[in-house]
Write a structure and sequence with these properties.
The protein is α/β, with parallel strands linked by helices. 37% of the residues lie in helices and 20% in strands. It has one domain: TIM Barrel (Alpha-Beta Barrel). The strands form 3 sheets. Strands 2, 3, 6, 7, 8, 10, 11 and 12 form an 8-stranded parallel beta sheet that branches. The protein has a two-stranded antiparallel sheet with strand order 1-9. The chain has a two-stranded antiparallel sheet with strand order 4-5. α7 runs parallel beside α8.
């Protein structure tokens, strides 16, 4: 089963489902938090506010109000607060299971359940942006989910440049495990020059983050470097509108 799902994810990642071309008129960046741990809002939110930036919080409904493996996740008050502040609430599946492991019926049920969970925080609307749990994809899931969202996002490391697949956007990690400030600055300079779109992503935000999280200082540096390069930072849903019309 593990080999089968790994193969499905590999083949899915290389299947172009929703090709699109960036407008190429300006460079853009987005900040994204996956899952999301509560401190992505309580500690990450103030950093964003200092820069006047709004982010995308990809939300898995089953995590609401829970502590899992020592990580405290968001609660309903956090969702209401970040929505009121103008941040985007995105979809990350309800049960946060890799989509290659789900049958078509399970995928449909998981997507519907998360949509129902998120509606009260979106004034009855549906989430516009989706991120694949663990970055694992399948061709079927990309085709099934693509009509339901303005974009789908994976965890493949790359700028979104020129021709992209809106059923699997790429990212630039701000996680501790991959942090390299010089490399980050180089990616930002290149994006400014060729007018590409960078989606920076991480998970928890604290002074002692896990391997998949960031410190407030790391988040601050990414925002400062992007601003210094003249790159506008938008939530993913707004960047899609700006980049593709």
């Amino acid at each position: 089963m593990r080999l089968k799902t790994a193969l499905s994810s590999f083949l899915g990642r290389h299947a172009i489902v929703r090709p699109a071309r960036l407008a190429g008129t300006r460079a853009l960046a987005s900040i994204a938090f996956d899952d999301f741990p509560q401190n992505a809002w309580t500690q990450g939110g103030p950093v964003l506010a200092r820069h006047g930036v709004r982010a995308t919080y990809y939300t898995a409904g089953s995590f609401c109000g829970r502590t899992v493996d020592g990580t405290r996740f968001y609660d309903a008050d956090d969702l209401r607060a970040l929505a009121a502040a103008g941040h985007e609430i995105g979809c990350h599946g309800f049960n946060h299971r890799p989509v290659p492991e789900l049958s078509p019926d399970e995928l449909a049920q998981d997507a519907a359940r998360n949509a129902d969970f998120l509606k009260p925080f979106l004034s009855g609307s549906a989430a516009e942006s989706y991120a694949f749990p663990y970055g694992r994809v399948s061709r079927f899931a990309k085709r099934f989910l693509s009509p339901r969202f303005s974009s789908l996002r994976g965890t493949h490391e790359a700028p979104n440049r020129a021709h992209v697949d809106l059923a699997q956007l790429d990212v630039v990690s701000l996680e501790t495990r991959l942090w390299d400030e010089a490399a980050l600055q180089a990616v930002i300079r290149r994006a400014a020059a060729d007018k590409s779109w960078l989606i920076f992503y991480t998970h928890d935000v604290s002074d002692s983050p896990g391997a998949y999280g960031s410190t407030p200082e790391m988040l601050d540096k990414a925002l400062r470097h992007a601003a210094d390069a003249g790159i506008e930072i938008l939530p993913v849903r707004d960047a899609v509108r700006a980049a593709f019309g």
